[in-house]
Amino acid sequence: MDSFFKLMNSLIEINETDRTLIASLLKPKEIEKGTILLKQGDMEKSVAFIENGIFRHYSIVQDGKKIITS
Hints:
Elements: H1 2-11, H2 16-25, E1 58-60, E2 66-68
C-alpha cells in the first residue's frame, strides 16, 4: 500500500486522518497469472491499483485473435 500512497501524495496532499480512513477501505488482493478480471460488457464495481506485476488488456476479434491494447 505504500506505493499507492506515494503515488497519491505526488498528486494531492493527504493528511494522516484521511490516509488512515482510505487505508481502512483498501483490500490488498493477489491475482493469479491468467485470471480474467473483467469481460467485455461487465460492469466493474471496484477500482484496482497494481502495486507489482503486469496486467494485459485485450479484445478478441471475430476471427478469434487477441488484439492487445495495453
